[in-house]
Amino acid sequence: MQFTSEQRLDDGVLEREFTLGGIPGVLWTPDSASASAPVPLILIGLPPLGLRRVHARVAARARYYAAEYGFASATIELPGSGDRPRLAATEQARADLRRVMEAGEPVTGEIVDALVLPLVERAVPEWQAALDALLALPEIGGPVGYEGGIISIGIRLAVVDPRIAAANLFAGSFVPAAMVEEARRVTVPLQVLLQWDDEGNDRQASLDLFDALGSKEKTLHANMGGHTGVPHFELDAGARFFARHLS
Question: End-to-end CA distance of the chain, in Å?
């Protein structure tokens, strides 16, 4: 991990950009974090829009977690997104998805698999490598939570990495049938956020996935409104969820 920039924000949070094997990322730490008082960590997954486009939104979450609960937060760019090299298969899958949606045709399982599964296979090992590097920093001590991003990535990470102690997942992305089956193996505490009228999401499919998740402790937060209408209070609800399981 190489830090490429550093700035102390006006609320005392330290924001550091880094690269890890060519993957860009950002780490936010509260001013209370130190080698003598290491803090828990939240991994913030990104949508496939590119880190630069969503930086302000993700930074606002991270700064809230730092200021209100003393958590560090980090994110990394998705494979094929932002300034990273494009993936030909993913680009083709996105084109196929746009084509069928514009034509009003059903999205097939083959398209969903081609769109999501290669991202899961690439992104999860990258998150694990980032987690290795982040937990090696003296001011980061764990435990670790995961939130947001593509829900299939969160499912896989919660299944394969025992360092993930809790996950706050956002419904709204296409989920391959194989990932629904994998969801049955998730055991960590979960909170799932669903926008009831999300125009890009199959509500029943999201409810079926929630039902499939194997965790004994899981909570569904469903709010009226579209994809961008998430109530502001859900930020604190997510923070309090992590406070119960990471503090």
Answer: 26
Give me the residue label for tokens 């089956």: 181
Residues comprising the chain, all counted = 247
Domain that holds residue 141: 2-84+123-246
User: Residue 199: which pLDDT band, with cuts at 50, 70 and 90?
Assistant: confident
d(CA 128, CA 170): 20
Q: Residue 96 falls within a domain, yes or no?
A: no
Distance (Å, whole) CA 47 – CA 54: 8
Where does residue 172 rank: exposed (0-12), middle (13-18), buried (19+ CB within 10 A)? buried
User: Between the CA of residue 245 and those of 143, 168, 179, 219, what are the distances in Å?
Assistant: 8, 11, 24, 14
Give the DSSP letter string of 12-34: S-EEEEEEETTEEEEEEE-TT-B
Per-residue pLDDT tens over the stretch 80-129: 999 899 999 889 998 999 899 889 888 899 999 999 999 999 999 999 99
Structural domain includes residue 117: no
Q: How many domains does the chain have?
A: 1
- Given the structure tokens 């049955």, which residue do they identify? 184
Output the pTM of the full model.
0.94
Q: How many beta carbons lie within 10 A of that of residue 215, not counting itself? A: 19
